[in-house]
Amino acid sequence: MTQKTKDDAELDDFGRFSEPALLILVSLADGPKHGYSMTEDIEIIASVRLGPGTLYGALARLEARGLIEPLKSEDRRNPYRLTPLGERALRARLDSMMAVARAGQRRLASA
Amino acid sequence: MTWLLRLYPAPWRERYGEEFAAVLVRQRLTPGLVVDVVAGAIDARLHPQIQSSNQTKGEDTMTFEMLQRCAAGGPKLSPSDRRIAYWLSIGSSLAIAILYIVLTKLYREAPAVQAVLWTSAFFPNFIYQQMVYLKKRSWLTQGLVLGAGLSAMYLFMVGICLLGTHLHFPGRL
């Protein structure tokens, strides 16, 4: 088994917020968004509607670890964007998920 | 619906309150939404990710506060803190004594009643300590920590009393 990369480990210790955190990072991958836009976008890409408690629990963790950052805004809807660290963590996590998916599909095909 | 925001700690509201409210008002009020917000508030209190503007990272922990007080020779209690702790100790002792008498009259020596007696031995000290070390926290946090701590202690005592009631040693009466 390959060793977990340092960037991939950035998303560890999120507990029940690990899946919402990953979805938020994916949502921000194509540009900054504010909270409500993220909820809508995540519902489209993953068919999951994050409640505000879950969304902001994950956002607070991602911001505290420096994976996302808020942008200045004139209204009360603060947009967020990925930081370089957040982008690396997302790439690393997606790579490891793809490796697992490929292995699973290979095994199912040969079963 | 934004009244639900009051469940969150003040530093959290200061940082995310407005944008959270902007998201919240666009949602349909359902029991699931309320559960999600309440669970988020409990998480924000148990695992604070942000500090208030007059705190630096790591200061907002009970351990840090206790270490600071130990280093300074113990808790620094103002006369008002002392009065609160004193009346809480006396008040809680009286309340638990009355509760025990009433429960004994009603249920005699049931394990759940005996557990009240044993829990009461720690009760005033527990409340006093918690009020001292949690005094900078909100009443809601104090209530949650006290409630959870005392409930856990009571359940532990119920377990001990049940064990004592049902434990039989071979060869003994």
Q: Can you describe this structure?
A:
The complex is a heterodimer of chains A (111) and B (173). Chain A is mostly helical. Chain A has one domain: Orthogonal Bundle (Arc Repressor Mutant, subunit A). In chain A, 60% of the residues lie in helices and 5% in strands. Chain A contains 5 helices and 2 strands. A two-stranded antiparallel ribbon of chain A has the order 1-2. In chain A, α2 crosses α3 (35-46) and α2 (18-28) packs across α4. The longest helix of chain A is centred in the last third of the chain and has 27 residues, at 84-110. Chain A is globular and about 55 Å long. The two termini of chain A are 21 Å apart. The mean pLDDT of chain A is 89. By secondary structure, chain B is mainly alpha-helical. Chain B folds into 2 domains: 2-60, no CATH class; 77-166, no CATH class. Helices cover 70% and strands 0% of the residues of chain B. Chain B has 6 helices and no strands. In chain B, α4 (79-107) runs antiparallel to α5 and α5 (111-133) packs antiparallel against α6. The radius of gyration of chain B is 21 Å and the shape is extended. Chain B starts with 9 loop residues before the first helix and ends in a 7-residue tail after the last helix. The relative contact order of chain B is 0.09. Chains A and B meet through α3 and α4 of A and α1 and α2 of B.
Can you tell me the number of structural domains of chain A? 1
Category by helix and strand content of chain A: mainly alpha
Q: What is the C-level CATH assignment of chain A?
A: Mainly Alpha
Task: Tally the helices of chain A.
Answer: 5
Q: How large is the count of helical segments of chain B?
A: 6
Could you give the count of β-strands of chain A? 2
Strand-residue proportion of chain A: 5-15%
> How far apart are the first and last residues' alpha carbons of chain A, in Å?
21 Å
Unreliable residue stretches of chain A = none
Report the principal-axis shape of chain A: globular
